Amino acid sequence: MAIFEVEALQPDRVKHFGLMVRDAKQIQEVRKKLTKKYKVKLHPDFRCDFRDPWGNRIQVGDLSDESVVWLLPYQEVQKAGITFASKPQKEKCS
After folding, report:
1. What does the DSSP assignment read for the chain?
2. Which residues pair with 60 in a beta bridge?
3. How far apart are CA 44 and CA 92, in angstroms?
């Protein structure tokens, strides 16, 4: 979990918390469960973002996305064998 202190509150579009899964396959599993089982509407501009019943934005990301690599110590990235060959594609809600 990454928590930052800010000088000024940002618009709601920016505030969120995120959960990490291992890879794109797990993202697909989460997306399927959210949309099919729980009938949650995913945010169209993100791979797997949604709002909880209280309006909080929740982001599910995976370790193949190099934009989140700053969350891990570099040695952990190397140990996990994570490489960044291409930018992840945005997935459509199904």
Report:
1. ------SSPPPTTT--EEEEESSHHHHHHHHHIIIIIS-PPBPTTSSSEEE-TTS-EEEEEETT-GGGGGGS-HHHHHHHT----SPPPPPPP-
2. 19
3. 8
Cα gap 44→28, rounded to integer Å = 15
Give me 70's structure tokens: 């700053």
Q: What is the pLDDT of residue 27?
A: 92
Q: Is residue 5 part of a domain?
A: no
Asked, for residue 8, whether it belongs to a domain, the answer is no
Residue 62 in tokens: 């995976």
The pLDDT of residue 61: 86
Judged against a pLDDT cut of 60, whether residue 78 lies above it is answered with yes
The Cα–Cα gap between 39 and 94 comes to 11
- Please tell me the total count of domains within the chain: 1
Residue 90 lies in a domain: no
